[in-house]
Write a structure and sequence with these properties.
CATH architecture of the largest domain: Sandwich
Distance between the termini: 102 Å
CATH class of the largest domain: Mainly Beta
Order of helices and strands: HHHHHHHEEEEEEEEEEEEEEE
Number of strands: 15
Shape: elongated
CATH topology of the largest domain: Jelly Rolls
Length: about 350
């Protein structure tokens, strides 16, 4: 048996010891460099855990902290239920951000993108309380359809118990549904809450100079006025205003400088596009005489502007096994019928088109 040289054994032992010392050193170094959670991270995780355990209490505390601001901004009665749904659906981290927010706008911004209730009108708010509306092609909030109506009266404070709007105050009004309580009349106003309205605003009965501002209910009043009026002069101006969000009334009217009556006429409203059924019809028939042993092409009338040919048909003047259709297909915005006559007589070929129009709303 061949034994290893003693020097070889000593070298191997030394190498093994060196390797062991290297491994131990690396292990100690890795242990020393392992990052432990910071105090802030531990505290945040504890806060998130507490929110999950006490979610209902946290939501109510946030709601209660906003009651004074909601009353001051005249948000109505619906804000609490809608904001509560947002908070209940929020992730713990978003709910923590809402808990730390200073005002209504901050709370809505913290949780707006985790909402689950079916109200697409509630959008994030800026620091000033204005809507932040995303511009997305096909967005049902941005791409609204305007529906004009025969002008009709929706507000007339002269016919209400409250009378004129006092200076330094505002009053809420609806633009949809029954408007008789606010001096409105039966008209073609929408029976649903629209995205916005085109209106004509008239001031009357004022005794000094002043202004009125019409703006969405539930939002901050803008600095720009809708109409500046003069004493004892009736003045009018047209404007477009978005409808309020999650509140009882749709719009608010602020008066400044003088008490004044306000008369508002509806010119039209904006609403999300609605899918409608296609409007289809068949054109009158075009015809042509096809001689015996001959071929001929007959066209239907052209579909009217705004409609598209989607089909067509044909018929011979007589029934005969030797009357043939070679082609029946669209050509432009009409239908083409190509026939061959081998019947022994001259016969007429008739051609028609099927037109479709998507009417929209």
């Amino acid at each position: 048996m061949k034994h290893p040289h003693p020097f070889t054994i000593l070298m191997a032992a030394g190498l093994s010891a060196a390797i062991s010392q290297t491994v131990i050193a690396e292990t100690l170094q890795n242990a020393n460099t392992t990052e432990l959670p910071s105090t802030a991270e531990v505290t945040r995780q504890q806060e998130l855990s507490d929110i999950e355990l006490n979610r209902e209490t946290v939501v109510m505390e946030i709601i209660d902290s906003l009651r004074a601001e909601a009353e001051e901004r005249e948000l109505g009665d619906a804000w609490e239920d809608e904001l509560g749904a947002m908070l209940e659906a929020a992730e713990a981290a978003d709910l923590l951000a809402a808990q730390e927010a200073e005002d209504y706008a901050g709370v809505v911004n913290a949780v707006a993108f985790t909402r689950i209730w079916p109200d697409p009108d509630v959008m994030p708010l800026s620091d000033s309380g204005e809507l932040i509306t995303p511009k997305v092609l096909g967005d049902e909030l941005s791409d609204l359809v305007f529906t004009p109506v025969t002008p009709c009266r929706i507000v007339d404070t002269r016919r209400t118990p409250e009378g004129p709007i006092s200076p330094g105050t505002s009053r809420g009004f609806k633009v949809h549904g029954n408007l008789q309580a606010q001096g409105g009349t039966s008209c073609n106003n929408p029976n649903f809450d629209p995205g916005g309205v085109a209106i004509n605003v008239t001031t009357t009965g004022n005794r000094s100079n002043g202004l009125v501002t019409v703006y969405p209910n539930g939002q901050s009043r803008p600095s720009a006025s809708t109409l500046n009026f003069q004493a004892f002069i009736d003045l009018a101006n047209s404007t477009v205003v978005r409808s309020g969000i999650g509140v009882d009334d749709d719009i608010r009217v602020w008066a400044e400088g003088s008490a004044t009556h306000v008369v508002i006429d509806l010119l039209g409203y904006f609403a999300p596009p609605q899918r409608t059924a296609p409007d289809g019809f068949t054109t009158a028939e075009g015809s042509g005489l096809i001689n015996n042993n001959g071929e001929g092409t007959v066209f239907s009338p052209t579909c009217p502007s705004g409609s598209t040919v989607t089909g067509g048909g044909h018929r011979w003047e007589a029934f005969d096994n030797d009357l043939y259709i070679i082609a029946s297909d669209p050509l432009g915005n009409r239908w083409r019928c190509l026939g061959r006559n081998e019947s022994g007589s001259n016969w007429r070929l008739f051609c028609r088109a099927r037109c479709i129009r998507i009417p929209g709303r």
